[in-house]
Amino acid sequence: PIFDILCASPCGLIEFPENLSAEVTGRRFFERYNAPYYHRRISALHRAGKKVSIHNDGTLRGTFDLLASCGFDAIEAVTPAPVGDIPLRQLRDAAGPGVVLWGGLPGALFSPCFSDEQFEAHLREAVEVFAEDGRCVLGVADQVPPDGLISRVRRVREVVEAAPVRGNR
Fold it and tell me: Is the distance from CB of 137 to CB of 156 less than 8 angstroms?
């Protein structure tokens, strides 16, 4: 019944809040159990005119490439290296061409455990890579930790606002 309610709702984007990580499900389990379920549910949501995303942070390699074939329109909380296991510049190839990637800035980088230089280098690379792609939403993947530096949150805005406008911003 919940999917009937979602299909009839005015909401245009439905998120599967799975907190998916390939480390937990593994590829074989995902292919056998998750993929058929997602495909069935997403097909119904698409028929109702909905876009569908999934929360996928942590370990990406192993199941990340299967999400687009399940029908997901976007993958949210995408956590690249150095916290995740796929470098920024390889995310698009790993996900496939059609799905929107949402994230790119590992929350851990906002912690003082990482140097300002590490944070700045990753931020600038993320802005560049996501701007080149055009099917990305820059954001924190997964969340800024309790010891996160508010100055780094502000820095994201400064760098994005100063970046040259290219394509869809």
Answer: no
pTM attached to this predicted model = 0.91
Taking only the tens place, the pLDDT of each residue in 79-130 is 999 999 999 999 999 999 999 999 999 999 999 999 999 999 999 999 999 9
Give the model confidence (pLDDT) of 11-47 as tens digits: 999 999 888 777 777 899 999 999 999 999 999 999 9
Residue count of the chain:
169
What is the distance between the alpha carbons of residues 17 and 155, in angstroms, rounded to a whole number? 28
Tokens encoding 30: 């995902």
